[in-house]
Design brief:
33% helix, elongated, alpha+beta, 35 strands, 647 residues
């Protein structure tokens, strides 16, 4: 039985099925995303969504959807589904769905009278090409399929309206047509493995509504261009393969291309395998460079997310080479910033103050997996360069104080992962001494000591680190640990922020923490009581001022709530680390039970993945980006850690 399988009763219930989304990527930037009933519910949905570097650093929806009709005895049964203005759903093709499963590839089974038809979709790795295979499983009469492509040719966050600028021409190509709607866009090739009849009937289809955008309080209506339709007969047992790509392909190669690609897939037969597949979808290969996307469908290349997600999305699934490739690309950008002070053109936020600290944390996880000698051989120069750079106070916004603590200014621009802004100002103005910055700094220094200990080439640096650590550890405790047993979130001069936030979980979850075991347990108790949910740690305690548990409403309301209540699964990784450090083997069964809350999400939201955040109160609904790299990574890292604990 498939781990991700939905029957007819769920699929025909639009209140449930429209809330479930599926995502596929080619690991080079292109993706396909829609609901499980193939009704697009947000503007970022589409059958073929690709990056176009010549235009910008964003994605563009080329092929929005494809309506397929079954024709028998002159009667047409349209299997498509769209929402039009006024909340009207048409043509209601979901009523023909018998089941949907996503074990290896998304497969929908339709039944129209005596006709049983399956539809399977797959992306070709590192190529901007989507294949859809239609197989006629059963039919008692001659059957014809009609394919009507709906085109957008727009940036994912924009919408298109009917206009006179569209290029209406379609050029014939092998078993299909090619078209490009606007200047600057690549040509879209739509081809089949069998020769179809092409009927040129250019027209605008108007008034598509995207309910997810409607909920978010942003524009949600658009028009799509339909150049015509393809038609061809299909026999029982026969498969028709449709290709949508940016280059022409030999129709004869499509069947083999499909089979070769499906052979490389990891079946989603377990919680771990679902997350493993999700993790690989964040990989982005561009020439000789590899990156880690922050998420879908509006993720970016972000420095902090890259380093935070890297261990879980590579090491935890035994992809060592991918860790090294992504780290090398990101490290080059970080080195360039340290040398020149210039940001990177591709990876955003490389200049933020905690980036060097998260880089060292990621390399620490690499060391735990593959040994200190491997780290010394590949990354010791980078690590020591970072420590020297910070100790010399060369970072423009991370200054080492006399007592060894590090200070950042975040009053005008957000400096931490809590980066919500409104009207150009941080929603949570964390500034001064930030608790996780200083914990990461202490951890980085202690970890570096273990790598250079006994190496005369680094004796001077070793001495500087030892001197800083000796001052930093007691200063951290005196500054952050309060009389209530938890840690202040940030301290700025005489002001100590009393908000109960999850950044203290990072401080107690690190391998080298400034707190002793008793102090860690006290902090852990507060985190457990006030922040822990089945979907991660709340970004603010319900007992703290300004708690907003639901990420809903207008863009302004959502920005205010972003870091003031909703829970983040990635923080559970540090919570689990802290729990194991305090309770040892006796904590394994408890953490294993807590993972059930994340496994439940495999059939909700974006199936097989984890959303960006979850409401802080029951029922803990998923919000934001439908598939988020740091969340997937840290749950994978936790699962792997618990397995090792049980060995």
């Amino acid at each position: 039985m498939s781990y991700l399988k939905f029957d007819k009763s769920l699929m025909i219930n639009l209140e449930q099925s429209l809330m479930k989304e599926m995502l596929r990527t080619n690991q080079s930037g292109a993706y396909h995303c829609t609901s499980v009933v193939d009704c697009n519910t947000r503007k970022q949905h589409g059958l073929l969504v690709v990056p176009i570097p010549e235009m910008d650093n964003s994605w563009h929806v080329l092929l929005s959807s494809m309506d397929v009709s079954v024709i028998q005895h002159g009667a047409q049964f349209n299997l498509g589904l769209h929402r039009y203005q006024g909340g009207v759903y048409s043509p209601n093709g979901h009523k023909y769905i018998r089941e949907f499963d996503c074990e290896s590839v998304p497969r929908t089974t339709y039944r129209v009278g005596g006709v049983i038809l399956t539809k399977e979709k797959i992306f070709i790795s590192h190529e901007n090409r989507l294949l859809i295979r239609y197989t006629l499983v059963e039919a008692h009469s001659p059957t014809t399929l009609r394919f009507r492509p709906m085109l957008a040719f727009r940036e994912v966050n924009q919408l298109v309206m009917a206009n006179g600028n569209v290029n209406t021409e379609c050029q014939p190509t092998a078993n299909g047509v090619a078209t490009c709607l606007y200047p600057g866009y690549p040509t879209l090739f739509m081809q089949f493995n069998h020769k179809p009849e092409w009927h040129y009937e250019p027209n605008w289809y108007n008034g598509f509504e995207y309910i997810k955008d409607m909920e978010r309080g942003v524009p949600y209506t658009e028009d799509l261009w339909v150049p015509g339709y393809f038609e061809m007969p299909i026999k029982k047992g026969e498969s028709i393969i449709f290709s949508a790509g940016l280059s022409e392909v030999s129709p004869r190669s499509l069947a083999k291309m499909y089979e070769n690609e499906i052979a490389t897939r990891t079946c989603r037969t377990s919680f771990f395998n679902c997350l493993k597949n999700a993790a690989k979808q964040f990989y982005l290969k561009e020439g000789n460079d590899m990156y880690m996307l922050s998420g879908y469908p509006w993720g970016k290349l972000l420095a902090r997310n890259t380093f935070m997600a890297l261990p879980g999305n590579t090491i935890a699934i035994d992809h060592r080479a991918d860790f090294e490739a992504i780290m090398n690309t990101a490290a080059r950008a970080l080195r360039h910033f340290m040398e020149t002070g210039q940001p990177d053109s591709r990876i955003a936020g490389i200049d933020l103050p905690d980036i060097p600290l998260w880089c060292i944390w990621a390399l620490q996880q690499y060391t735990k997996a593959y040994g200190a000698n491997s780290t010394r051989e590949l990354y010791l120069p980078l690590i020591t360069e970072i420590i020297d750079y910070l100790l010399d106070n060369r970072h423009p916004n991370l200054q080492v104080q006399e007592n060894g603590m590090v200070r950042s200014v975040g009053t005008d621009t957000p400096v931490s992962w809590m980066n919500a802004s409104m009207y150009g100002r941080p929603v949570v103005p964390r500034t001064g001494l930030l608790v996780e910055f200083n914990a990461l700094w202490y951890n980085a220094l202690r970890f570096t000591q273990t790598l250079i200990e006994g190496n005369d080439s680094y004796s001077r640096l070793d001495g500087r680190i030892a001197e800083t650590v000796a001052k930093l550890q007691p200063a951290f405790v005196d500054t952050f640990l309060n009389d209530y047993g938890y840690l202040f979130d940030y301290v700025n001069d005489s002001y100590a922020d009393p908000s109960v936030r999850p950044n203290m979980a990072i401080a107690i979850g690190l391998d080298f923490s400034p707190l002793d075991r008793r102090q860690r347990k006290g902090v852990l108790d507060v985190v457990t009581r006030e922040l822990l949910t089945p979907k991660g740690l709340r970004s603010l305690s319900p007992k703290s001022f300004g708690y907003r548990p639901a990420y809903l409403g207008s863009p302004e309301e959502r920005e205010m709530a972003l870091h003031n209540g909703p829970a983040r699964p990635w923080l559970f990784g540090f919570y689990a680390d802290a729990y194991l450090k305090v309770f040892g083997h006796s904590g394994v069964s408890y953490l294993d039970r807590m993972l059930i809350g994340y496994e439940d999400e495999m059939t909700n939201g974006c199936i097989g993945s984890l959303s960006q955040l979850y409401d802080g109160n029951p029922p803990f609904s998923g919000r934001g980006a439908i598939s988020h790299a740091t969340n997937v990574a840290e749950i994978l890292r936790t699962i792997t850690a618990l397995k090792k604990f049980n060995i």
